[in-house]
Amino acid sequence: MTDLPDFEQSLMTALRAAVEFRDDAPANPAFPASNAAELRTRFDIPLEENGRAGPAVISDLIHAAEGGLAGNTQPNFYAWVQGSSHPTGVAADLLTSAWGQNAGLYQTAPAAAIAEEVASKWLLDLLHLPATASVAFTTGATMANFIGLAVARSEVLRRIGYDLEMEGMVGAPQITIIVGAEAHSTVMADLRHLGFGTRHLVVIASDSQGRMSVADLADQLAKINGPVILVAQAGHINSGSFDPFDEIIPLAHKHGAWVHVDGAFGLWANAVEPLRHLSQGVELADSWSVDGHKWLQVPYDAGFGIVRDAEAHKRVMSITASYLTASADDGRSPSAYVPELSRRARGFAVWATLQALGRQGVRDMVLGHCQCAKHLAARLNEVPGIHVLNDVVLNQVALAFGHKGPDDKATKNIIDHLQAENLHFVLGASWHSHVILRISIISMLTKIVDIDSLADAIIRAWRGQS
Ligand SMILES: Cc1ncc(COP(=O)(O)O)c(C=O)c1O
């Protein structure tokens, strides 16, 4: 029997710490205060033969993690494209753990299966994707892309009479994979995991914003015989740009290709009327990935792998065994869409976060972040020597510094200065052979006032240096 007093006290200890952590958030330093050695010392306590009382363990955990928590639940976090775990989603997540459901099958977790079913419907509706598409609830966009590409691999071979599920990759007809020159690194990882490697990919030239060239794609397609998968992108990691879907998808379909769109954060533009011109035509694709834990603010980990052909999706991902049964009137079987059988009931937190935000809440948040990005770019563009390198169309701003154009040393100095100041969590990256200060505006807490504080800090740092 559950030791209820121990359970309740453990939860209360955790709850108090959770609320204090969020209450303190604006006062916390931007960067984690402890280094790895300090964290190791705090976590590496003896593992005794006998177990301990829950509340004491939870208190020790809170102490051990202190100073080692990154600031992505704060409004001043701009380092990576990371959401800030909506409080209602966090509460739903706590229940998810307490309920302890294994959302593999409808029978093992009926409520979890139906929560996924309903949240899928809401997501497809919000994103303007086909209502009959299927949705896998994944750990993130990397796994969502993996699923889209795995279904693509099987389906393009099935269309030419090859049964990949039965025959495997040994002796399979060659599939040509086409990617944009600036596809996200995780797409490359997915292609490696799926056995495509990276050497034989057909890489399409991209423009100054990282968008795939339509002319180059047309040239390359004309040279290819046999099955093709095209991987396109909604939301470039540095510029926020979108591939020209309304041109490249019909072109690829004319050659019988499967088109997968990596839309980890950018696909949310398709939910927002004033931004939909960016993603025009994206609904024509065959599969899509989008994260829950980025723009939607679902607690980690949450992503969605969406496939137009739900039957192909299930054929590739389903696991069968005599003891994994379902009757006709059962609801969704969550594991039929993902590579795992046993899995966390991610649908609860997604359902709750969507309810907490509401349709307009999602749209306002996404648009608000894009307005913040434009505001930041406008303020910085006024200052000689600060260069906004991208067309700011979404939530990403790529910055470089230098009197006579981008100067890596100057940019690096500004990044170092802002990091030492510890008011804003910012990082550098590299893009088109330049060091950049890349600003990602995606925390649900970030508002124009925070962007003004960031702009002031950047301008101060630049004026102090130049
Ligand atoms: C464009 C793009 N694709 C894929 C990913 C991978 O997403 P995740 O970290 O959720 O697996 C990211 C992450 O930033 C991304 O920006």
Write up this protein.
The structure is a single chain. By secondary structure, the protein is an alpha/beta fold. The protein has helices spanning 4-24, 36-43, 54-65, 87-99, 110-126, 141-158, 164-167, 185-193, 214-223, 245-254, 310-317, 347-381, 408-421, 448-465; strands at residues 134-138, 176-180, 202-204, 228-233, 258-262, 287-291, 303-307, 386-388, 396-401, 427-431, 434-440. The chain folds into two domains: 4-69; 93-353, Aspartate Aminotransferase, domain 2. The protein has 14 helices and eleven strands. The chain is globular, with a radius of gyration of 24 Å. The mean pLDDT is 95. Residues 81, 140-142, 184, 186, 235, 237, 262, 264-265, 291, 303 line the site of pyridoxal-5'-phosphate (PLP).
Write the layout of secondary structure elements.
Blueprint: H1 4-24, H2 36-43, H3 54-65, H4 87-99, H5 110-126, E1 134-138, H6 141-158, H7 164-167, E2 176-180, H8 185-193, E3 202-204, H9 214-223, E4 228-233, H10 245-254, E5 258-262, E6 287-291, E7 303-307, H11 310-317, H12 347-381, E8 386-388, E9 396-401, H13 408-421, E10 427-431, E11 434-440, H14 448-465
Helix pairs in contact: 1-3, 2-3, 4-12, 5-12, 6-8, 6-11, 9-10, 12-14, 13-14
Ligand list:
pyridoxal-5'-phosphate
Please report the total strand number as a whole number.
11
Q: Briefly note the CATH topology name of the largest domain.
A: Aspartate Aminotransferase, domain 2
What is the name of the CATH architecture of the largest domain? 3-Layer(aba) Sandwich
How many domains comprise the coordinates?
Answer: 2
CATH class of the largest domain: Alpha Beta
What composes the largest sheet? 7 strands, mixed
CATH homologous superfamily (4th level) name of the largest domain: Type I PLP-dependent aspartate aminotransferase-like (Major domain)
How widely separated are the two ends?
Answer: 68 Å
Residue share in helix:
40-55%
**What structural class results from the helix and strand content?**
alpha/beta
Runs in which pLDDT lies below 50 for 5 or more consecutive residues are none
State the assembly state of the protein chains: single chain
List the helices and strands in order.
Answer: HHHHHEHHEHEHEHEEEHHEEHEEH
Shape assignment: globular
Tally of alpha and pi helices: 14
